[in-house]
């Protein structure tokens, strides 16, 4: 496998263009004679210097700019099976590391048909070879520029035609998974809802054989869901759940220190490594109802809830029946009371007592011996609704009406007769 990169120094020490034409299986016959001679010379000079890597280069001056073409050959068999976009990322990594002393203080412009920088930054988790390359390239000032915007595209096209490589970024349509776990006295269960890229849905409700905690059930749901996705051949997946702790631990936002959760965390991480793309999203429970129903059905909690709801409905009906009976009894008591009730009626000029309002008011001086009635007053006017206007015995009128239920007939006492 050979990586070809063109380094163009715009101003010495300040700016460099890296024009990557591609990566492919390449033979010595495709190299220029000068390159092959340099390879042989380097091998004879120090054959044990880099047993797995050979590099050579040729330079030329065009329009006042020095253009250097580096050939980086890798002898590792595993790297020949990389994806085309990953081969381009590997080319950029080796180009920057091999001439690090030149590019470290310069602005680097990467010219390529595919945006390798965006591809590396789009990885959801910093892991594997992409994470290693991203960490190594973080010390460089790198900027991407499409190949069509470069005047020197002719040279890159020539190299591209020689090695006969077509690199294109492939877009992968992701699966979607909703998961949830449920734990109750009747048992434990997990629920998964899988949605294919074409919109087909697959529901799974599995009862766990042994009792566990809520967090363990959530991890079991994720593990089983990822296994089902791998069996279906999924390469990219978006995972949604309402467990903030589990999702934060899998994205390494939180550290998993629980002894019961760590083995499950390791199992999930191993399954995550088998996907090309995986991303986690936290959602509230109200948006995860389908997976929640599947988990509750598996654990038996849903049956308990339905039984409780049925009992509540029965109790509600009984409560309404009791309320109607209370209303009927109150109506009977009211009719019996009204039969014995003698309405108070007063005429103009009658003397009456008025109750001390509000009822139960005590005078600070007399205390418990405070009077409950005061007066007498004279009825001045009879109004509708058993209301009366009163006046004092000297003729001064009350400003407001008084309800008849707070009045009673005044009868002179023996003391009044003596006066």
Radius of gyration: 46 Å
Strand order of the largest sheet: 3-4-1-2-5-6
Order of helices and strands: EEHEEHHEHHEHEEEHEHHEHHEEEEEH
Globally, the shape reads: elongated
Q: Let me know the number of strands.
A: 16
Pick out the low-confidence regions.
1-15, 21-56
How many helices does DSSP assign? 12
* Structural class assignment: alpha+beta
Number of domains: 3
Helix content bin:
25-40%
Distance between the termini: 133 Å
Essential attributes:
419 residues; alpha+beta; Nucleotidyltransferase, domain 5; SH3 type barrels; 3 domains; 6-stranded mixed sheet; 5-stranded mixed sheet; 12 helices
What does this structure look like?
The chain has 419 residues and is α+β, with helices and mostly antiparallel strands. It has 3 domains: 2-163, no CATH class; 175-299, Nucleotidyltransferase, domain 5, CATH 3.30.420.10; 351-418, Roll (SH3 type barrels). It has 12 helices and 16 strands. The strands form 3 sheets. The chain has a 6-stranded mixed β-sheet with strand order 3-4-1-2-5-6. A 5-stranded mixed β-sheet has the order 9-8-7-10-11. It has a 5-stranded antiparallel β-sheet with strand order 15-14-13-12-16, with no helix packed on it. Strand 13 (373-383) and strand 14 (387-391) form a beta hairpin. The longest helix is centred in the C-terminal third of the chain and has 40 residues, at 301-340. The model is unreliable at 1-15 and 21-56 (pLDDT under 50). It comes from Lolium multiflorum. Residues 23-60 are annotated as: Disordered.
């Amino acid at each position: 496998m050979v990586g070809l990169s063109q380094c163009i120094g715009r101003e010495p020490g300040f700016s460099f263009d890296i024009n990557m034409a591609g990566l492919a299986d390449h033979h010595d016959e495709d190299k220029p004679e000068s390159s092959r001679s340099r390879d042989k010379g380097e091998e004879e000079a120090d054959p044990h210097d880099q047993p797995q890597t050979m590099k050579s280069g040729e330079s030329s001056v065009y329009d006042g700019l020095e253009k250097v073409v580096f050939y980086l050959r890798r002898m590792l068999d595993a790297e020949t099976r990389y994806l085309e976009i990953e081969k381009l990322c590997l080319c950029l990594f080796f180009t920057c590391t091999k001439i690090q002393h030149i590019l470290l203080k310069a602005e680097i412009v990467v010219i390529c048909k595919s945006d390798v920088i965006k591809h590396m930054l789009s990885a959801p988790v910093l892991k594997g070879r992409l994470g290693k390359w991203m960490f190594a390239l973080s010390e460089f000032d790198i900027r991407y520029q499409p190949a069509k915007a470069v005047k020197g595209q002719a040279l890159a096209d020539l190299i591209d035609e020689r090695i006969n490589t077509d690199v294109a970024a492939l877009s992968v349509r992701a699966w979607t998974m909703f998961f949830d776990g449920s734990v109750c006295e009747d048992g434990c269960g997990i629920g998964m809802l899988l949605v294919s890229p074409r919109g087909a849905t697959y529901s799974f409700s599995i009862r766990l054989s042994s009792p566990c905690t809520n967090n363990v059930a959530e991890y079991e749901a994720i593990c089983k869901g990822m296994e089902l996705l791998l069996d279906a051949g999924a390469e990219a997946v978006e995972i949604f759940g309402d467990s903030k702790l589990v999702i934060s631990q899998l994205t390494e936002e939180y550290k998993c220190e629980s002894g019961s959760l760590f083995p499950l965390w390791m199992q999930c991480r191993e399954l995550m490594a088998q996907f090309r793309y995986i991303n986690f999203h936290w959602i509230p429970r109200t948006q995860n109802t389908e997976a929640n129903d599947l988990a509750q059905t598996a654990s038996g909690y849903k049956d308990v809830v339905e039984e409780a709801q049925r009992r509540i409905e029965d109790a509600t009906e009984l409560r309404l029946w009791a309320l109607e009976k209370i209303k009927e009894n109150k109506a009977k008591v009211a009719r019996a009371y009204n039969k014995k009730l003698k309405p108070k009626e007063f005429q103009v000029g009658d003397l009456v007592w008025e109750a001390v309002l509000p009822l139960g008011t005590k005078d600070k001086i007399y205390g418990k011996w405070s009077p409950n009635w005061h007066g007498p007053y004279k009825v001045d006017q009879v109004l509708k609704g058993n209301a009366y206007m009163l006046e004092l015995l000297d003729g001064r009128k009350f400003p407001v009406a008084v309800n008849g239920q707070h009045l009673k007939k005044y009868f002179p006492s023996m003391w009044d007769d003596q006066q």
